[in-house]
């Protein structure tokens, strides 16, 4: 079955998590993606978590996840003619906003679309900053509301800002690549994605509210994110349950599930804000009732009663969740002939032109001979 992006050539010369994630969406839907790496490989090859506790280039689980179905060449091992041929044929080139002189000279202005993914974009007060995910969480206000009232906030772990930046870049880049294919783009174009601006999606409502009112919402404690309540992850008799209750009908159905009918029709509790004001009254009862039930049972009963509840598995339970198994949410990245690891599959699914689920991870320079022919 033909894949959606078969026939496209994407070249990644940036080697960041963001460019890698952007390119991954193309690779897993059939595009040919070539990583043009330095002699010791992209920096992602050394990013934790590590498969084994040894810092060697092919030991990064994160790199393996980002790099299924891609090809790898070492740029310095190719002649100008060979590297120039790859760049000239590219439908899309991805970089981190900085090109070394050799690649810049060989690339411009032949290919149609260039996408630069940087921490803070090409202009503005932070343009020259070297960013981090934590820095972005702090600047976009995300960290401010997470954690207990007393003490410092909690810093989210991982590289979500870079992942969201990569996905935002993918959307914009794909639109322009398609436009070029349709003949609607006749001149080379250079696009820019700011990971900081992309990560504003985590706090967009809060930013707009502050802009309109000038008010700053206080940190209200664990599982309290105004104006929605209840909202958060709570322990059950066995397992954990994600709870989001918005409308009056959802609130009444939620109360019925937990035998809390005494709260169902209280006038104040018909709005999220009203429930938030009475959280100290509602939450002790809610927590006690949740501990009487199985998280999985409540999840399915919530579906039957149109209440948005989510089963929240532990890391040990993750791969056995029935809906994840059914949807092929995880697949295998083949790091070497002897070793593979389980990684997330693509984040969206086409069925008539399905994606690749997992695949091989190329070692540094594995495809130099192929490009040199």
Total domains: 2
Strand content: 15-25%
Please provide the count of β strands.
12
Q: Helix/strand/pairing class, anyone? A: alpha/beta
> How many DSSP H or I helices?
15
- Give, in spatial order, the strands making up the sheet with the most strands: 3-2-1-4-5-6
Architecture of the largest domain, according to CATH? 3-Layer(aba) Sandwich
**SSE order:** EHEHEHEHEHHEHHEEHHHHHEHEEEH
Q: Biggest β-sheet, characterized?
A: 6 strands, parallel
Mean pLDDT: 91
CATH superfamily of the largest domain: Crotonobetainyl-coa:carnitine coa-transferase, domain 1
Radius of gyration from the CA trace?
A: 24 Å
What is the distance, rounded to the nearest whole angstrom, between the alpha carbons of the first and last residues? 29 Å
CATH class label of the largest domain: Alpha Beta
**Amount of helix:** 25-40%
| Low-confidence region ranges | none
The shape is elongated
CATH third-level topology of the largest domain: Rossmann fold
Can you describe what's shown?
The chain has helices at residues 17-28, 61-66, 80-89, 101-107, 133-139, 160-181, 195-198, 204-213, 248-257, 261-264, 272-277, 279-290, 295-304, 322-326, 368-371, and strands at residues 9-12, 32-37, 71-74, 92-95, 113-118, 189-194, 231-235, 240-244, 309-312, 330-334, 340-344, 359-360. With 373 residues, the protein is an alpha/beta fold. It has two domains: 9-201 and 329-371, Rossmann fold; 231-235 and 240-313, formyl-coa transferase, domain 3 (2-Layer Sandwich). A six-stranded parallel β-sheet has the order 3-2-1-4-5-6, sandwiched between helices. α1 crosses α6. The longest helix is centred in the middle third of the chain and has 22 residues, at 160-181. The chain starts with 8 loop residues before the first strand and ends with a helix.
